Structure to design on (357 residues):
């Protein structure tokens, strides 16, 4: 009886073990349904194929998006091309060497001068370059040093927040307010009615500083911290790290931001009309006397309207000469801005290549 019971128990254990093993196998591997004949399962890939209607809908969506992108590009391109084309067509009529090498001295109405010309913009070109250069000398060091302080030293302090708020407020100041500020400052420091080219440089620097600060701050912020930490690990001081590593790395972006700031202010008219004034002759001294710039020249020629050619006028008198001079001066101003942008891109590319090496 005992032998029979042991055999029965062993059989149950064997049967139970086999059952549990089968359960473990079935739980470990996914259940695969196969056909009755034991062949491998067949996956129907046709279910995943796109239908003709879905393909047509996808093509329609792609076509619509492409059309919208191209239309947006054309809409954005139309104003730029139209301004360039109109300025080129109207400005080339009067743009010549005589126009670029003479000032408005001796020009009366629409009559030609003794040399046969009709006046020029030499004094305005010199004034624009000198006033803009003065604004750059003032604004670039201040803007870059302010950005260095905000990124490298302040680290989100209250003073940094106050400076950032002040910069944001300055970026929204109307240009004529900057001109009035410069005029009143020189009237207080030098004397009432003081108008010169440097006063215009101060006015433009107030408009340039916010742009220089913001662009320089953004470029300094994206410099990897690994470069700073590696320099500190080698025992380099913070000042030398900033001048030799951080600023050199961010220099292409800083130059681009500076060019944008110059392009922002080189066409300003209101502050220069108040702070620098207008003069028909060439004044090379930035710190003494009135100085004409190209935007003020364009405004003055346009505001005077058509010239009068009376009975005693010269046979070569032109009634629309002022508008011709205004368009030609505007074209020269556009060319200067384009050259500045090309110069900025060239400088950025040169410094970027040196960094890569």
């Amino acid at each position: 009886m005992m032998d029979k019971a042991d055999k029965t128990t062993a059989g149950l254990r064997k049967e139970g073990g086999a059952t549990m093993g089968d359960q473990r196998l079935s739980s470990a591997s996914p259940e695969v349904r196969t056909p009755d004949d034991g062949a491998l399962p067949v996956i129907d890939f046709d279910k995943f194929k796109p239908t003709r209607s879905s393909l047509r809908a996808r093509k329609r969506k792609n076509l619509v998006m492409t059309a919208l992108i191209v239309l947006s590009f054309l809409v954005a391109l139309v104003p730029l091309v139209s301004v360039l084309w109109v300025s080129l067509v109207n400005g080339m009529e009067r743009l010549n060497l005589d126009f670029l090498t003479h000032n408005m001295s001796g020009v009366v109405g629409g009559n030609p001068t003794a040399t046969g010309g009709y006046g020029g913009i030499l004094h305005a070109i010199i004034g624009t370059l000198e006033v803009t250069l003065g604004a750059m000398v003032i604004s670039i060091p201040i803007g870059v040093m302010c950005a260095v302080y905000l990124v490298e030293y302040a680290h989100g302090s209250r003073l940094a927040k106050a400076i950032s708020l002040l910069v944001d407020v300055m970026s929204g100041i109307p240009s004529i307010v900057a001109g009035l500020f410069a005029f009143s400052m020189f009237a207080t420091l030098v004397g009432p009615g003081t108008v010169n080219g440097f006063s215009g440089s101060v006015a433009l620097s107030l408009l340039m500083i916010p742009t220089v600060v913001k662009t320089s701050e953004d470029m300094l912020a994206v410099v990897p911290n690994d470069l700073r930490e590696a320099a500190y690990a080698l025992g380099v001081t913070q000042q030398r790290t900033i001048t030799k590593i951080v600023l050199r790395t961010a220099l292409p972006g800083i130059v681009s931001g500076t060019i944008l700031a110059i392009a922002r202010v080189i066409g300003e008219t209101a502050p220069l009309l108040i702070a620098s004034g207008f003069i028909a002759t060439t004044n090379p001294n930035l710190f003494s006397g009135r100085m004409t710039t190209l935007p003020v020249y364009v405004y003055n020629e346009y505001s005077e309207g058509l010239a009068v050619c009376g009975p005693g006028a010269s046979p070569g008198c032109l009634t629309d000469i002022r508008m011709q001079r205004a368009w030609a001066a505007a074209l020269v101003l556009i060319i200067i801005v384009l050259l500045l942008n090309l110069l900025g891109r060239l400088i950025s590319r040169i410094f970027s290549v040196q960094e890569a090496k």
